[in-house]
Records
---
Amino acid sequence: MAEPIATKIKQFGVYTTKDFFMGDYLTKLPTVETLAPRDDCCNIFDSKDLLFLAGILSNKLESLWIYKFEKNNRSIFLLEKDGLFFHPFYHTPIIPDENTKFIRKIHLRLIRSHFSNKFYPYRRLIHKNVASGYKNYHEDILEPVKLVDDKFIHHLFDQKFLDFDLSVVVPPGYAICPYCSIVKPFVQINSSADITWKLLVGRKYGYVLCPHCLGEFASRLLSMS
Ligand SMILES: [Zn+2]
């Protein structure tokens, strides 16, 4: 794997990953017991548990459906194949009982689109700005982002996910990227142009990013005028 971008960038600003909310689901892989996003989002399209979503997407078959059920007032998500139900990516058989109520079917395609929007907003932002001629980026951060045929913008689902059967212990300050495995995230600050601050619409955002693929683990508004 290439040298992480973070080692090349000298100026991070005063923020560290401790200034952001980093959920437990960033440092642990889902287990065979995990049947729903671990941030308790009953709507899978609000979830930030990207490892759970990536697990579902590691099913390469195009025509898969994910079934949403409710059991004891909690949502669970199962994979359906030929009328049988399985864990959405460990593929252990699961038989819904009488307490399990079917809610709806979700096509894999929709989960893909949500995952891509949630995990790569920063990479997309760079791509969009560079494509429109905006040059205010450190050149090292631009290096992995390609205007044409970008690995994680144009060909995201051709990339291989990490091995979900991996037993990993994640050291403090590290997180699990669905593509790059265990990484030390770095903080990137993005401020709107000077003129916006004078016009009282200035915004400064912070992003906690994977140093290899610029996937986003957390982000928040840091200040505004
Ligand atoms: Zn990554």
---
Amino acid sequence: MTQREVPTQLPECIEAERVYLRRYRLDDGELILRVARANRDHLAHYEATNALRTITTQDEADAVVRRFVEAWDKGQAFFLGAFHRSTDAFVAQVYVGPTDRKLPAYTIGFFADKDHEGMGYVSEAVRAVFRCLFHELGAHRVRLECDDSNVRSARVAERCGMVREGHLRENKRNPDGSLTGTLLYGLLRSDYPSADLLESPRDRRSQRRTL
Ligand SMILES: CC(C)(COP(=O)(O)OP(=O)(O)OC[C@H]1O[C@@H](n2cnc3c(N)ncnc32)[C@H](O)[C@@H]1OP(=O)(O)O)[C@@H](O)C(=O)NCCC(=O)NCCS
């Protein structure tokens, strides 16, 4: 039996309730420089290796944007900015990386803009990305790894229906030498806790209208 052909590229724009996500464009250098400067300290502990933390100048920001665009075009990594629908303010970033084309499986990562933390935008954006991965890209599995002291990140994972699959205890050191562990989260197609996660808000609205 031949397998159904599924796209391997995320859509360039993903709509959610309060936010939309879009891939970065070559002219996003100024945005990325602003985001990088505003979030340098915010990302220091749990996202120490985030590419945005390497940026101090406009040239460096432009180079990172070029890398994001190239990685997207090659289908190697998908970096999406999440923006508020009414103000267009940058509120978060979601990363999606293909890890196994045959399964297919993906890994995700995210951060909230420091001035937009605690408002539910990350969970909303991640749910929208899950819908896309399972509906449009035929994902079988999505995983997330987070530091075991990163309570906010674990809460996003669990709010979005991910299942805690493991806990690697004291498997790495912080820059100050202290030990820390890693939580492993996964979401299978069959884990969807309710149709709410699977359907887009628009699907739900049009379904309600036809009832
Ligand atoms: C981890 C991180 C992304 C979590 O961000 P966050 O803002 O807590 O996540 P959300 O946007 O989903 O917001 C959820 C919070 O908004 C609250 N909230 C407020 N208004 C809301 C609304 N209208 N709708 C939904 N939630 C709302 C929720 O109650 C929740 O608060 P709680 O966790 O105290 O219960 C963020 O702390 C971060 O960027 N950390 C640094 C980088 C990082 O750790 N990245 C992850 C590496 S694995």
